[in-house]
Amino acid sequence: AQKITQTQPGMFVQEKEAVTLDCTYDTSDPSYGLFWYKQPSSGEMIFLIYQGSYDQQNATEGRYSLNFQKARKSANLVISASQLGDSAMYFCAMREGLMFSGGYNKLIFGAGTRLAVHP
Amino acid sequence: EAGVTQFPSHSVIEKGQTVTLRCDPISGHDNLYWYRRVMGKEIKFLLHFVKESKQDESGMPNNRFLAERTGGTYSTLKVQPAELEDSGVYFCASRHSQTNEKLFFGSGTQLSVL
User: Fold this and answer.
1) Looking at the partner chain, which of A47, A100, A107 has a beta carbon nearest the beta carbon of B45?
2) What is the pLDDT of residue B72?
3) CA distance B59 to A70
4) Which of A92, A114, B68, B110 is deepest in the core (most CB within 10 A)?
5) Phi-psi region at A55: left, alpha or beta (left = phi > 0; alpha = psi -120 to 50)
C-alpha cells in the first residue's frame, strides 16, 4: 500500500544552520514522484521541490535539496542556511506514476513535520 | 497572477447544517482537486476535476459531500448535513495539464462542526 512516513513531529534548528527533515515512502510502483510542501502559519501549501523516481540527480531548488535514496525509499528534505521564515509545517507527498495522468492524480501525504527556526 | 483562492477561510456551523466551500483555481488551470486534513491526520485526497468533469471522486467520504465545477472554472464543495467528524481543513489545488510537478494549493477552509 502507498504510504508516506514522516517520523519527526517537530524539529528545532538554529538560524543559519542546515536541517534535514525525514521522509520515507512505500510503493510497489517503480514510477513515482516525490514532493515537498511548506505550510506557514498563513495556511497556504507552498510547493518546494519535486523528485521523479528515475531522476539521476538529487533535486535542488535554491536552499532546498532532496536527498533521494531510492534503495532505502527515503526522500529527505535538506534546508541549508535556515532562516526565521522557514518556520512552518513541512509535508512530504508521493504520487504514483511519473506524470499526473489518468488514474495517477492523487498525492499521498505524510503527517508533516513542524520546523521551528530559532534566532 | 492570483493563486488558488478559497473561501471562507473559516466556517463554524452546527451539526446538521449545510456548508458550501468555494475554490477559485488559478486562471487557466483545467485540473482542480479537493483535499482535506481531519483531526491532525494526514492530508487526504477527496476528488479531482478536469474542467467540469469529475475524473476521480474515490476519496469522497460519503454522499453527504457534493462537489461541483460548473463551467470548468470555480468549484464548490457542499457538505449536507454536516457531522462532527467533518471538521478539518479543506484544501483546494489546481494544476495546468501541461504541468507535471507543481500542484498549487490554496490556504484552505477551516471547517468546525459543533
Assistant:
1) A107
2) 86
3) 28
4) A92
5) beta
* Phi, psi for residue B43 in degrees, rounded to 5: -70, 130
Whether A100 has a pLDDT exceeding 80, the answer reads no
CA–CA dist B99, A42 (Å, integer)? 25
Q: Please check whether residue A44 touches B, CB under 8 A.
A: yes
What average pLDDT score do residues B42-51 get? 94
Q: Strand ranges (DSSP E) for B60-101?
A: 65-68, 75-79, 88-95
Q: Does the beta-carbon distance from A105 to B102 stay under 8 Å?
A: no
Which residues are CB-contacts of A109 (< 8 A; sequence separation ≥ 6)?
A4, A91, A92, A93, B35, B42, B43, B44
For A22-62, strand residue ranges (E) read 24-26, 32-39, 46-52, 60-61
**CA A32 to CA A107: how far, in whole Å?**
10
The grid coordinates of residue B8 equal: 471562507
Residue B48 CA to residue A74 CA, distance in Å, equals 27
Tell me whether residues B107 and A43 touch, CB distance under 8 A: yes
pLDDT in tens, B84-114: 999 999 999 999 988 777 889 999 999 999 9
Check residue B1 and give its pLDDT.
64
Residue among B59, B97, B103 minimizing CB distance to A47:
B103
DSSP-derived secondary structure for A57-84: SPPEETTEEEEEETTTTEEEEEE-S--G
Find the mean pLDDT for residues A45-67: 95
Q: Is A103 on the interface with B (CB under 8 A)?
A: yes
Taking the Cβ of residue A89 and every Cβ of chain B, the question of whether any pair is shorter than 8 Å is answered with no
Residues A71-90 have a mean pLDDT of 97
